[in-house]
Specification:
Order of helices and strands: EHEEEHEHEEEHHEHEEHEHEH
Number of strands: 13
Distance between the termini: 39 Å
Largest sheet: 8 strands, mixed
Strand content: 15-25%
Structural class: alpha/beta
Shape: globular
Strand order of the largest sheet: 4-3-2-1-5-6-9-10
Helix content: 25-40%
């Protein structure tokens, strides 16, 4: 049995990519052959395409070749199931619906399908958006900084979200969600209830043995993108009183992003700079050591 995963990138940058890697590992252990296509729209009527396992095999193609590339993909992969993960590319999805002869599932890792800003988060007021997608999104993009503000990009994201809600959601075999929150967001915009299925994310089947490193300094560890949606700045503000009264405590941040410099300055202003450590991106054994 052949399973084709489709995502916007090969690079393992976050939770979605780790999720896909775990799924592929589990499928392989159960004798399912999997392949991963990375595809996303580019500039100037071109699109990025990579059916390999490394970025060296990627190509930038003319949009006129989209049908041809999809035909070749389906012929070579012969998928029995297609699982679309994180992509924003309505034209590709529409052509895939026309040509694929197997069920197409959509994994809704985040609110991308129902939000032009992908996160249901208002950056200016730092509040969760509780409204279903609508024309208000075109206004809130500027008043709440919750979506792209370049008019062309904003309209493209708005139309893509409208496509997912009005067209694609009806045609996917199932929309897979991992949490009650994402399920609620899918229901809020009118996804057919019978299309939604909740499956918690897979865990590593062979977890590493945990051997904590002895230390006299209690440590708090944050791992993730340094962005307002993840809240590292909120964590610093909340923990500052604790660290000030307990100078032996340490706060570690692993990750990078738009507000890393802001978080560094915030820690200094709070008087906890010497107890707050910013490690940047880590992976493999480096991250394992920090967890320990």
């Amino acid at each position: 049995m052949n399973v084709l995963h489709i995502h916007e990138q090969l690079e393992e940058r976050g939770g979605t990519e780790k999720h896909i890697a775990r799924l592929r590992k589990i499928f392989s252990q159960n004798k399912l052959h999997t392949q991963l296509l990375a595809v996303r729209p580019g500039s100037g009527n071109r699109f990025y395409w990579n059916i390999g396992e490394s970025n060296s095999s990627s190509s930038l193609e003319s949009i006129d070749k989209l049908d041809e590339k999809i035909d070749a993909l389906l012929l070579n992969c012969l998928p029995n199931i297609i699982i679309i993960h994180g992509i924003t590319f309505p034209k590709f999805i529409e052509v895939l619906f026309q040509k694929a002869r197997c069920p197409i599932f959509r994994y809704m890792h985040e609110p991308r399908m129902v939000c032009p800003g992908h996160s249901k988060f208002w950056h200016k007021s730092e509040a969760c958006c509780e409204k279903p997608m609508g024309l208000h999104c075109l206004i809130h993009a500027y008043t709440e900084i919750c979506a792209p503000r370049h008019p062309k990009k904003l309209i493209a994201e708005f139309n893509s979200t409208r496509f997912e809600i009005s067209v694609a959601a009806q045609r996917y075999a199932k929309v897979i969600v991992a949490s009650d929150y994402i399920q609620d967001q899918a229901t809020l915009v009118g996804f057919p209830p019978e299309k939604i299925v909740k499956i918690p994310p897979p865990l590593d089947t062979e977890p590493l043995a945990y051997h904590p490193v002895p230390t006299d300094s209690p440590r708090i560890l944050f791992v993730g993108r340094m962005s307002r949606t993840k809240g590292p700045h909120t964590l610093i503000r909340l923990l500052a009183p604790l660290l000030l009264t307990h100078p032996e405590w340490q706060l570690d941040f692993v990750g990078d992003g738009l507000i890393k410099d802001e978080c560094t300055a915030l820690a200094a202003q709070a008087g906890i700079a010497s107890q707050t450590h910013f490690h940047g991106w880590k992976s493999g054994h480096e991250l394992e050591a920090l967890y320990r």
